[in-house]
């Protein structure tokens, strides 16, 4: 399950799209949309870091 979650998080994603592609925080003029994307990015980074560490520990044990 942890590997599936990590695979899911490694896929490009965004709450907002333009021209069929995800929009990045830097592309947002609206500060609230930009804030949503910045927070989601940071949470996703933290979760991916934890998942990688947990998987490494489980594999070595």
The total of beta strands comes to 2
**Strands in their spatial order, largest beta sheet:** 1-2
Order of helices and strands: HEEH
| SS element count, helices | 2
Distance between the termini: 17 Å
Estimated share of beta-strand residues: 5-15%
Low-confidence stretches: none
Radius of gyration: 14 Å
Structural class by helix and strand composition: mainly alpha
Query: What's the main sheet like?
Result: 2 strands, antiparallel
Q: Give the overall shape, derived from the CA principal axes.
A: elongated
Mean pLDDT: 93
Instruction: Please give the share of residues in helix.
Output: 55-70%
How does this structure look, described?
62% of the residues lie in helices and 7% in strands. With 61 residues, it is mainly alpha-helical. A two-stranded antiparallel ribbon has the order 1-2. α1 packs antiparallel against α2 (31-60). The radius of gyration is 14 Å and the shape is elongated. 2% of the residues are buried. The model has no long low-confidence stretch (mean pLDDT 93).
């Amino acid at each position: 399950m942890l590997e599936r979650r990590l695979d899911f998080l490694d896929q490009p994603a965004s709450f907002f799209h333009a021209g069929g592609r995800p929009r990045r925080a830097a592309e947002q003029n609206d500060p609230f949309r930009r804030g949503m994307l910045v927070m989601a990015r940071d949470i996703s980074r933290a979760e991916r870091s934890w998942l990688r560490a947990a998987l490494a520990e489980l594999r070595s044990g």
